[in-house]
Each structure stands twice: as C-alpha cells, then as structure tokens.
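Lab channel / #folding
Pinned by the channel admin:
"Please post every new chain as: sequence first, then the structure tokens as a reply. Keep commentary short and put observations after the output so the thread stays searchable."

First post following the new format, from NK:
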Amino acid sequence: MAGLVAAVAVVGSVPSWWCGRDADAWFRGDSARVHGLAEELVAFEADDDHRRATGAGGELDGMWGLLAHQMTALGLAQVVLAHPEWRDRYAPIVIRSAAKSLLPEMRTVFTDAWHGEDGRAVPDSSHGHAYLSYPALALGMARLVDPAFPTALAVEQDSARYFAGGAALVRS
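Reply from TO:
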C-alpha cells in the first residue's frame, strides 16, 4: 500500500513540477524568453512568405491561416508594447502578418459556408460575417504599434471593420 501511495504522489507531483520549472520566467515576461518566442513567430512568417513567393505549397490558408497570421500579429504587437525598443524589428512583421489575414484564400472556408458569399464582397449581407473582425483586430494592433502604418492598408482595415459589421465605427 505504501508503494501505491508513493507512486501516486510521484505521478501527481513530478509532472506539474517538471512543466512548471520555467513558469515564473514566462509569467514575469523574461526578455530572453519573450525574444526567443518572438523570433519563432518571425521565422514562421518568413517561411510562409518564402512558400508563397516560390509556390512551394504548404502555406497556411483558410481558417487556420487566418487565425495563425492574426495571432502572430497580436502576439508580436504585444511584444512591441511591452518592449518598445524592439519596435523596429517586429512592427513590420506585425503589419505583414495582419495583412495576410485579409487575403481571399484565408476566407475560403467562410465563403464556402455561406454558399459562395464572400463577406468582403457583400457588406450588407444578413449573414454578418463576424470572422472579419479577426483581421480587423490584427490590423488595429498593427496600426497601434507602427506609426508608419501604410495608408492603403488603413483603408483595407476600415473596410474590414465595415464588412464585419462596424460600419458605424467607420462612418464616425
């Protein structure tokens, strides 16, 4: 019986101890850890850019692509807000990944779900197309962290907000 109790105690405590060894550094926002993770996101976007440019295939698109690029933009924007000294390195990648979330191939699954109706093309649709709020959020964060946010992309963001049901925000 003592062996069983010891085994349960070990199985119950060792995994949480092992997985939590570095949790404090992550929680405190340790610069080395944050920088390493941010560089992984930069590498992800660079690989995606390469695949798209060369036609190598394997790039993310559809719902997963939209969300991956949106989350990359949001994560790197948070890094820039926490570490303004890294703005020059990460702000352009925030913009690039946010802009990718507007690509037509990111919306295919949603367009298919509405029998061919693309939310960007039909702003007055009764279907709502709330998924367009994801690119709008990513572009909003990109605008926040980069004072040189491209004007043409600002128009795209405003139209994405309009198409996501935020027409009152755009008009005001």
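NK: The chain has eight helices and no strands.
TO: also worth noting, The chain has a mean pLDDT of 82.
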